[in-house]
Amino acid sequence: MHIIFRISLILIIFISVIYCQGTTGPKGRSRPGRNHFYRGRHAGYMRSGYQIPTTFIEYVITFGIFIVFLMALYHLWSNSFPTPSNEEYVNIGSNREKCDQFHSGFWLSRYYQYDKFHGPYRFSLLFDPETSKITGNGSDDIGEFVIEGVYSIKTNRIAFIKKYRKGTGNLIENLGHNVTIQVDWNCNQYQFEGKWFIKTKNYNEEGRVELKFERSYRSME
Questions:
Q1: What are the distances in angstroms from CA 4 to CA 9, 54, 143, 186?
Q2: What is the pTM of this model?
């Protein structure tokens, strides 16, 4: 998504530059007669590189520049709010219903990216009731990964970092990067739902994610 946005921004800027350069022609000359003072000021504006839209194409270009400007503002605004740490996330708010769904065993997850859901993929989670920490491992269409995170029985939330092992799975998508998962219990769907985040210096993206308990380790014996 960020690539499409940048390409669109470059194209709009390129078109706008050509458009502004084309306004300093014969249209910018003032003519004697009535409203000479107004026309002289108008010509001065045009010589400086600006022309009031008069045709349909000019209005479309101006509107496109305005839309891209709003998109840039939204992009900056959405990225100005940092994602809360996993420890902060699991302690935000309170959930009155006790879900009692923090079971060590095999889980299923699926995530939304590129306009579709991927998965479900099986992975393991081990909950430590003494430290409220979780560990695990698994694999998906990106590659193999290990999990480290926290959870809270008071808020019914889980948050962990999924660390991919570089050189496994999809060699193009797997950069050995980290993915932050933050989910909350949904008693209606009987699963944990939330978002995944990837935030680096060169790449920012997020999407939906769902976690559902499959079976305990004992059932595999």
A1: 9, 30, 26, 34
A2: 0.65
